Amino acid sequence: MPTAHLTIDPAFPIAPVNRRTFGTFVEHMGRCVYTGIYEPDHATADEDGFRKDVLELTRELGVSVVRYPGGNFVSGYRWEDGVGPREDRPRRLDLAWHSVETNEFGLDEFMRWCAKAGVEPMMALNLGTRGVQEALDLLEYSNHPGGTALSDLRAEHGASPYGVKLWCLGNELDGPWQVGHKTPTEYGRIAAETARAMRMVEPDLQLVACGSSSSKMPLFGTWEREVLRETYEFVDYISCHAYYGNDDGDTASFLASAVDMDHFVDSVTATADHVGAELKSRKRIDISFDEWNVWYGDRSTRTDGPGDQWEVAPRRIEDEYNVTDAVVLGNLLISLLRHSDRVAVACLAQLANVIAPIMTEPGGAAWRQPTFHPFAITSRLASGQVLRVETDSPTVTTAKHGEVTAIDAVATYDDGRLALFAVNRSTEGPIEITVDLGRAGVTSIDEAVIVHDIDPLATNSATAPDRVSAQHFDSAQLKDGKLTLTLPAISWCALSLSA
Ligand code: AHR
């Protein structure tokens, strides 16, 4: 059997584990909001119309921050449509997803939902069809204590200030599909002026400028450079978005998607640092990876079926994930954690029904997709400092990413508790791993779980919600301070060890 060797030592930390790495995203898209997190007629609905089954799963997922309300949706959204008495709220066309938005759920509902879910809100602003004034209005409504038109309006609606700190200055404005699409200079200017004005109200806001909507965009690199030249002193983060799929059946490349994510983060931080050097600035711009996931183009349809009706909450991109997807997602989280020195925020897109870890049926069950498990387990076990893992592993040859290590891993260490997350990206067979734990002084394995299946395409459904779950990983053994484990092909595992 091929072997790999990992070396881990608490003396080599990368950065503290950032809880905001475990963010997700709720967009007014498809059934993420309506019949996802919100369904007043559902048997589990609470007094606000929130599905309690979905709230429970959100808490179990270990979500820290939730981006809202889009996505492409936000670039045509009027936030004031979604506040105040429901009977007065207008129905609007949503051009991004070719749907009708009823505005039954809006800002105040989202904030109540966040409080119940125990998550931090991350608000996205419309810089597609709108600009500085509307952003200031939303900030005043959301955060100002009182005594002004919009803060008093919020109070009339029964809400206290929300204290939102994290704001996205628009969404994917480099994309020609975006309502209000812009050139880098056009976007850089409006983002800079919006940020400058928002800071006149609250200097300590944390602001995200839009990076490219993917590293495959023709302007990738140039877009980041030009946008940051305009915004550098006014923003904190530049965004990254990445979706990976196995549409072409190149499973070896798909399994190595995290290599692309590593490279993406390194490229954007290099570009940001280049602009900082040009501007002779001591400030550092970090990354908000505010959309990432597995997303299958071929399984994702823009409409429900024939015709292209303007419907309310139609089914959109309800990808059904399998075991291989879960392994890839676990590996993408390994990549994000490894970059904790530069990735300040990350949002799995999205939370419910729309390329989501949580699925629901209207009036029916809610269940966990296979991808739910690596996210929930990593969020629960990762704490303290992220550690560098020195990896000596057999390699896999991939068409898209070249020669990559079959084993990829990251570890965290918190006051005598070590967590190890590892994947076997090979389709060929098991790999035996020995782990040198250096000065960690580990004496026991407290928990060992694996996501793997003899059928790498196995999925969950409303009728078989737990066909794929995390299993006890019994091959993990600890003897004389040395850890050994055998990871089968296409698998992800997590171990919690204590000293
Ligand atoms: O998450 C789905 C969509 O993907 C978002 O609306 C958009 O920002 C991205 O292109």
Automatic annotation (TrEMBL):
Which ranges carry the Alpha-L-arabinofuranosidase C-terminal domain? 290-491
What keyword terms does UniProt attach to this protein? Carbohydrate metabolism, Glycosidase, Hydrolase
Show the stretches that span the lipid bilayer: none
Query: Gene3D superfamilies recorded for this chain?
Result: Glycosidases, Golgi alpha-mannosidase II
Q: Which domain of life is it from?
A: Bacteria
EC numbers, comma separated: 3.2.1.55
Q: Which reaction does it catalyse?
A: Hydrolysis of terminal non-reducing alpha-L-arabinofuranoside residues in alpha-L-arabinosides
Please state the span of the N-terminal signal peptide per the UniProt entry.
none
Show the Pfam families listed in the entry.
Alpha-L-AF_C (PF06964), ASD1_dom (PF22848)
Annotated GO molecular function terms are: alpha-L-arabinofuranosidase activity
Q: Which GO terms describe its biological process?
A: L-arabinose metabolic process; polysaccharide catabolic process
SMART domains linked to this entry:
Alpha-L-AF_C
Q: Does the keyword Hydrolase apply?
A: yes
Assembly and oligomerization: Homohexamer; trimer of dimers.
Q: Which family does it belong to?
A: Belongs to the glycosyl hydrolase 51 family.
- Report what the protein is called: non-reducing end alpha-L-arabinofuranosidase
